[in-house]
Amino acid sequence: MWNESILQPANENLRQALEILDHDGVVGIPTETVYGLAARLDRPKGLEKIFAVKQRPFFDPLIVHVESIAMAQKYVSSWNEICTVLAEAFWPGPLSLVLEKSMATPDIVTAGLTTVAVRMPKSGSTLELIRRAGVGLAAPSANRFGKSSPTTGAHVLSEFDNGVFVVDGSAAEIGIESTVLRVSEKGLTILRPGLVTASAIERVLRQKNILFSWFELSQRPTVESPGQLKHHYMPAVPLMLVGEFDSLPEIKAYLRAHADDIPNEIYGVAVARPQSFENAQELVLPGDPILAAREFYGGLRKSGESGSDFIFFRVRSTMSGEIWSAIFDRLTKAASLILPTAQIVQSAPSGYPS
Length: 354
Ligand code: TXA
Ligand code: MG
Prior knowledge:
The protein is α/β, with parallel strands linked by helices and about 350 residues long. It has 11 helices and 15 strands. The strands form 3 sheets. A 9-stranded mixed β-sheet has the order 7-1-2-6-3-5-4-8-9, sandwiched between helices. Strands 13-14-10-15 form a 4-stranded parallel β-sheet, sandwiched between helices. Helix 10 (about 290-305) links the parallel strand 13 and strand 14 (about 310-315). It is globular. It starts with 10 loop residues before the first helix and ends in a 16-residue tail after the last strand. Bound molecules: threonylcarbamoyladenylate and magnesium ion. The site of threonylcarbamoyladenylate (TXA) has 29 residues, from strand 4, strand 5 and strand 9. The site of magnesium ion has 3 residues, from loops.
């Protein structure tokens, strides 16, 4: 459980947030992963507003944030023992469970899918807000569609032109989005990797002697989780992934030769295309992946705002393991170009068919 004493929500802020939500509005909510842009599940106009404010297409489903297992169970119809064990082990925390939806979940939230993602975030203010609302809050990450996720209240404020009320502004402790796990009769599938890793999930289920199997994504006929869109999380300035030992002149020469490969629009989202390759900004992250995840989006934002032509990130051989894989999931989607020298090692859970 989280520590109540260090996360006392400011009462007045919560009161204001509730009022906005009650009047079909949206508010920025802190979570341990990234900030969300929330509306009440029982306010269709508020839910529509999320898509409008984010400029998010309606085919992209939202995560329902709950304050308890009991509340999660209201919105789904296929809760099972695996869900109970995982929720007890990881909630509140960075794990979203994708299950069959119930009638209580509106179609706009799931983009018409029969499944819904639910999670209990680890933030005292947000949990208290959901408790007081008495209803789940649907929330995607509080960034414009296709752009980097916000990890502070200030990021949320700078993201949208019309100003969005933010519940509290503290920095997100984890820094990358939750693990999205599909739980179905066929088995478990990680739709989006995060800090709750496949091996942590395996460990918890084995400890409880629960039989399960991994069902690999590529066996599915279609990919319906739009977090898997090829490009996502884009910073304001193009990001290039480069090799550990590439020199700056080598990097620039490569980019000049491949300038035409840098896209300028992806799914209708404009992506900055560098006019020149003079000013480079290196994104440097700590070697410890937990710290790297925490600093990732903030670092990307800062680099994008530094006035440089492009950002580059060095992929190092020491960056391996499941948490680095989760970071690389974002890095590769945020990147406009990946140099052949950038050797990314993806680690799959042991139970996955290879
Ligand atoms: O950590 C997080 O998950 C943050 C905080 C705010 O909770 N939220 C977040 O939301 O990252 P968003 O909308 O940026 O990403 C939600 C992801 C997307 O990849 C979406 O496609 C997937 O969850 N998702 C939601 N509902 C789904 C469903 N029914 N089936 C498959 N994927 C789903
Ligand atoms: Mg997002």
